[in-house]
Amino acid sequence: MTEDGLRLHPIIIVENTIRTAIALLIIIFFTAGESLDMPFFAGLALAALALLVVLVAFYYRQWKLTFVRFGETDIVVERKTLFKLKKTIPYSRIASVNLNRGILNRLSGTSKLMVNINSGYNAIKPEATLTFEQHLSDRLRSDISQRIYGGEMPSFEETEQVARFTPMDVILHGLFSVPTQQSVIGAFFLLNSIYEQYRVVIGVEDAGPGGSFISLVLFFIFLLLPALRHMVYYWGFKVHRQGDTIFLEHGLIRTYKTSFQISRINAIRVKNTLFSRLLGRSSIEAEVVGIGSADGSGNTRPLISLLANDAKTQSLLQELVPEFIYERKAEKQPAGARRVLVTKGVISSAVLIAVMAYPSLLAYEAFSDGGNGIIGALLPYALPIATALAVLGIAYSVSASLRVREVDTGEELFTFVNGILDRETVIMSYDKVQMVHVVRGPLARHFDVSSAKVYLLASSGTSSISSGLFPEDRLERIGQIMMERAVAMKH
Amino acid sequence: MIEAVANEEVKTKGYRRLNRKCMLSMYITNGIIYAILMAAFILLMIFVPSLREPGARPIVLLAAAAMVLLLLYFVIGPRIYYDRYRYMITADKVDVRYGIIILRHILVPIERVHQVEVSRGPVNNMLGLANVNITTAGGVATISYLEVDEAEKIVERLTEVINAMLRGGE
Predict the structure, then answer these.
(1) Structural domain boundaries in chain A
(2) Fewer Cβ neighbours under 10 Å: the N or C end of chain A?
(3) In chain B, how many H helices and how many E strands?
């Protein structure tokens, strides 16, 4: 502590230096390329080293001259270097204050205190990331939380109402929360890898280990890597609600402690993928602005429940966000929507078939002596098969849309149910809606239906949620209720 | 018929229409865009010999058909846009209805408005027209082709409302 305020922990110099060193190594690697010219390589390395030394001095000076003051009404971050900066964050604007610990933080006994404000602009990045010793970060987070949420901030150990998820829950979440299309592609590459390996083992002439390896790498990229990222990110997931605040804690390598007020939630999404649905599991996401961290797949919406069975999901909804539960009278899409969807499906299938007919003939001629094995036999018919599959996909999406999509307009909340393979039920508050668009294309006009697009402030800036096709007056009702409530609140 | 009734209803509910000059602005803009596309099409036909071969005929015919359809859209579109465009600003909301092929109804509660701005492109500038962009935390709604005075008045009025709300919130 100095007269100017608190100084951040010096580990940030090391952190910045490592980040820069990695970037420089990558630059050297690509600049040097395959050149074996030692003097050139040595010169390049020396230049990079000199630059690194200069940058370390810069980072040191930046650390030395950066101060943080926690005042009565706001937090002030001031940098007194050549590029001066003074950032003032009023407590009243703070949406969440979270802790984040990476490997370096763990080694140095520090934590990153991340302060996020409720803003659509710069929504993904925290307004301030402040590294302090762990005990100091904990105390500061508690103090700030007290100011913004009111009341003491309990630790997870002190509260009984904590929903915990077992390692098996996390593993299942990691595996089955990957989008269905991605899972199917990943599984295809895994099967292909096994098939190619089998051909190598039985000694097929044109089979080699390369095909199997490439398929395995693609399986890793499409399915295994995202699943592992999710597992690492959500390891040890626990959640509880204290008063009007939800607290989350998770993370294997980097740990995350997140909290946000119920009033900051703009919408709740209950989501499931095709495979998680087969297991009877759904997850719950909250659309909150000002969290400032993303999971492995870049999703900035915090999960308040990992994939769990329906009973647990319902009980968590009840415990954590009862404000988003109401008596729903869901309405399926009407006959007009069926006509629009079927007509669109028929037109798009016809266009697809017409477009693919000529290339299919060309492909047949080119690959009619395609070679041996299953692939060789299928190659001439690949395009017609792909076209037939796409037409089947269109037919399935029409039928699934009619079965799945719903709308419901309650007094305080309204709901859209969407999705074909991966489905979500989005429960929104009228008071959080920023703008409503009711849209009618020529076909929809002919069959007397419309769709709506609702714009919300979201963790990634803004988000829009679209409805299925419903009678226009049904969707216009959303705007009417929103306006009635806005006027009532004003007066 | 349904549409005619709906339009009549819309007219009687206090919606305002655009100035007819908006059509001229759209015709000029469309003309410029079409001239550029046509020039690109002709240049491609001249300088890419493979496009003149019989094998490329289906693609050329498709492109020519697209150009004809686009011309129709550019000629008919502005009139339909003008006929259908309605906007209304009350003490509580901004309400805009518009569309040529796809009809849209946009509703923005005034209290969700964060920022208002007037923008003028070169064609609109020449004709004394302007757009008003209304920014909320969830996106931007635009009232297009307003006369400059009207646009300035709307911005002034919305800014007053926003400031009054901010003062009330302090």
Answers:
(1) 6-149, 163-324, 335-403, 405-490
(2) C
(3) 5, 6
The token duo for A138 is 């904990």
Over the stretch A422-456, which tens digit does the pLDDT of each residue have?
A: 999 999 999 989 899 999 999 999 999 999 999 98
Pick B105's closest partner by Cβ from A438, A456, A490: A438
Nearest-CB residue to A434 (from B58, B99, B138): B138
pTM score of the predicted model = 0.77
Torsion angle, CA of A55/A58/A62/A65, rounded to 10 degrees?
160
Work out whether the CA dihedral A90, A91, A93, A94 comes out positive or negative.
positive
Contact B106 A440 (CB under 8 A): no
Which positions in chain B touch A445 (Cβ < 8 Å)?
3, 103
Least confident of A239-243, A322-326, A413-417: A239-243
Q: Which of A92, A429, A447, A455 to mutate to test the interface with B (most CBs of B within 10 A)?
A: A455
pLDDT in tens, A357-410: 888 888 888 877 756 656 667 778 888 899 999 999 999 999 999 999 999 999
A interface test, pick of B13, B100, B103, B166 with most A CB neighbours within 10 Å: B103
Complex ipTM value: 0.80
Contact list in B for residue A361 (CB cut-off 8 A) is none
Instruction: Name the strand (E) or helix (H) holding A146.
Output: helix A134-149
CB-based burial label for A177 (10 Å; 0-12, 13-18, 19+): buried
List of chain A residues whose C-beta atoms are within 8 Å of the C-beta of residue B139: 434-435, 455, 462, 464
Do B138 and A476 count as a contact with CB atoms less than 8 A apart? no
Let me know if A311 is exposed, middle or buried by CB neighbors in 10 A (0-12, 13-18, 19+): exposed
Find all residues with CB under 8 Å of A210, minimum gap 6, and list them.
none
Say how many C-beta atoms besides its own lie within 10 A of residue A54's C-beta.
10
- The label of the residue with tokens 């009407």 reads A334
Please indicate whether, in this complex, the C-beta atoms of A486 and B112 are within 8 angstroms of each other: yes
User: Mutating which of A340, A344, A356, A435 best tests the B interface, going by the most B Cβ atoms within 10 A?
Assistant: A435
pLDDT for residue A193 is more than 90 = no
CATH fold label, A6-149: PH-domain like (2.30.29)
